[in-house]
Amino acid sequence: MAEYNTLDDLEPDQRVLVRLDLNSPVEDGEVQDNNRFDRYSETVRHLADEDHRVVCMAHQGRPGRDDFVSLEQHAEILEAHVGVPVQFVPDTYGEAAIEAIEALESGEILLLENTRMTDDELPEKDPEEHAESDFVQTLAPYFDAYVNDAYSAAHRAHASTVGFPLVLPAYAGLVMDKEYEYNTSVAEREFEGQVTMLVGGNKSRDVIGVANNLGEKVDTFLIGGLPGQLFRRAQDYPVGYDTEDMDLLDDQWEETKDILYDLLENRGDEFDLPIDFAYPDENGDRAEIALEDVEEPMELMDIGHDTIDAYKPVIEASEAVFVKGAVGVFEMDEFADGTVELLEAIADTDCFSVVGGGDTARSIEKGDMEESDFDHVSIAGGAYLNALTGAELVAVEVLKANA
Predict the structure, then answer these.
(1) What angle do CA 157, 154, 363 make, to 5 degrees?
(2) How far is 199 from 229, CA to CA, in rounded Å?
(3) Chain segment 14-29, per-residue pLDDT in tens
């Protein structure tokens, strides 16, 4: 039984306030459709079908950034996924919002304006403080229940994620429930066979946090991305240094080098590290170089095929494989081989598999794969990492406390 209430516990015909995470890329002022809308539409459609009056709230960008825009376009995209009208009001909790909420009929859907356009939303505060904010205190009396479906924002102590569960009956949405179940499975499930984690991305601290939290659960960590270079730098290879075109490595090295040395000395047999890399040649095409042939720092964009071929048998022998981050710059077709081919190996292996970490899920589209080839594809970034590292998800904790 879940430690929090789910939609199965929600009485029908309620006025429900639903927190979604529709934060999406914005290109030239146009909000881009993506799989988040598809996922969240399931919860919104379910609530409308149960004759609830559904009022959604979500965020987009941060003040001062180019992607900090209204949710008017989001309402149109969400409507296309839900299949029924989604009304929009350019207000969060003012008079216009209240009027639109009160006018809603059973089965109708309304999207409020960007939560981050209110001063109460963003400050990281204790749930009790957020519950006393004007935002929460003004909106809450108009609702019977609160549903948090925004797992990808569950690590944020914002008013819309932690304030409302203290003043309203609170429930986990379909996305929240599934993400939490699968993303904590590496720590909570028992596996009889080998457990492998493929870890990439651009932050060595992510790898360190995962390794420290899951060392007793994971048998082998397959390391790629920038952490793969930094681990090799700790072994005195001339990789993992900033170059003219990359400045993400030297600062990380200074922050984590002592921990990397310690991991390699005391737990080195848990980590499989790259033995070759891909880099752009003079034409920008993919070229590969063996680790021992690297003579000076250079721009390395992916693991090489010898590393891919070394990692595949480990995946194929695993009962469970978890993925956090891409092992290369997969956004560029020339350097997507490592990420795509290893994901294809996971998809082809009869193992329990969870894929997540920022935009990693987008790399599935580059290969001959479907999301259904994996047990779960997470749309969360920071919250997924928190689950893997054992850090608290404050929005989940308040749902548990509410229950």
Answers:
(1) 135
(2) 12
(3) 999 999 999 999 999 9
Task: Report pTM.
Answer: 0.86
pLDDT band at 1 (very low <50, low <70, confident <90, very high): very low
Q: Nearest 5°: phi and psi at 16?
A: -115, 130
d(C-alpha 307, C-alpha 115), whole Å? 45
- The SS3 of residue 146 is strand
What stretches of 287-393 show up as alpha helix (H) in DSSP?
305-316, 337-348, 382-389
DSSP H/E element including 290: strand 286-290
Give the DSSP letter of residue 6. Answer: B
Dihedral over alpha carbons 126, 132, 134, 138 (to 10 degrees): 120
Q: Where are the domains of the chain?
A: 7-179+394-402, 184-369
Packed helices 204-214 and 225-233: angle between N→C axes, nearest 10 degrees: 90
Rounded to whole angstroms, the Cα distance separating 368 from 70 reads: 36
Fold match between 7-179+394-402 and 184-369? yes
Domain 184-369 part of CATH 2.115.10.20: no
pLDDT digits (tens, 9 = 90+) for 289-298: 999 999 999 9
Q: Residue 56: which H helix or E strand, with range?
A: strand 53-57
- Give the mean pLDDT of the chain: 94
What token pair was written down for 328?
Answer: 């290369």
What CATH fold (topology level) applies to the domain 7-179+394-402? Rossmann fold (3.40.50)
Residue 351 CA: distances (Å) to CA of 34, 75, 196, 308, 354? 27, 38, 10, 18, 10
